Amino acid sequence: MYEIGTKYFTTNELSVAIVQAWVADLRINNTVGYNGCPRIIATRNGNDRIDQENDTFVITLSVENASSSLHLSFADAANHATRSREQLAPDTQLLIMVRETLQKLELECTLNEKRS
User: Fold this and answer.
1) How far apart, in Å, do the first and last CA atoms of the chain sit?
2) Taking Cα atoms as reference points, which of 5, 12, 18, 6 lies closest to residue 97?
3) For the chain, give me the number of helices (H) and strands (E)?
4) How far apart are CA 45 and CA 60, in angstroms?
5) How far is CA 31 from the centre of its chain?
6) Please, are residues 42 and 75 in contact by the beta-carbon 8 Å criterion?
7) Distances in Å between the alpha carbon of 106 and those of 24, 55, 63?
8) pLDDT of 38-88, one tens digit each?
9) What is the DSSP string of 35-86?
10) What pTM did the predictor assign?
11) From CA 47, how far away is CA 32, in angstroms rounded?
C-alpha cells in the first residue's frame, strides 16, 4: 500500500483504474486489434524506500507476446487509483494515455501476426 498525503492506494487499485479506462475506450472506439482482454501489471519504479517525488509507476498491458506500457508519476497514480476506488469515471488524461498505449499494443499485435 502506498500513501500520498491523505490518499492511499495499491497497485491493484491502479490496475482497476486502467481496466476502467480500457472499457471506456472499448465503448467509445468499438474496435480492438487483438483477441481478449490485455493482462495489466502495475509496478512501482524506485528503490526500496518510497520517494513520492521521484518514483513512478509503469503499467504494462500485454496480450500473448505483445506488450505496451504507460508511465505515471506517483501523484498521478494515486489520483487515478483513488478515483477508481471512489467509483468515479477515469479522467481525460488517463483515457488519452490508455488509448495511446492500446494503439501501440494493437500495432505490435498486428506486426506479430505478420511475422508468424
Assistant:
1) 41
2) 18
3) 3, 5
4) 12
5) 18
6) no
7) 17, 28, 9
8) 999 999 998 889 999 999 999 999 998 899 999 999 999 999 999 999 999
9) SSPPEEEEEEES-SS--TTT-EEEEEEEETTEEEEEEEEHHHHHHHHHHHHT
10) 0.87
11) 36
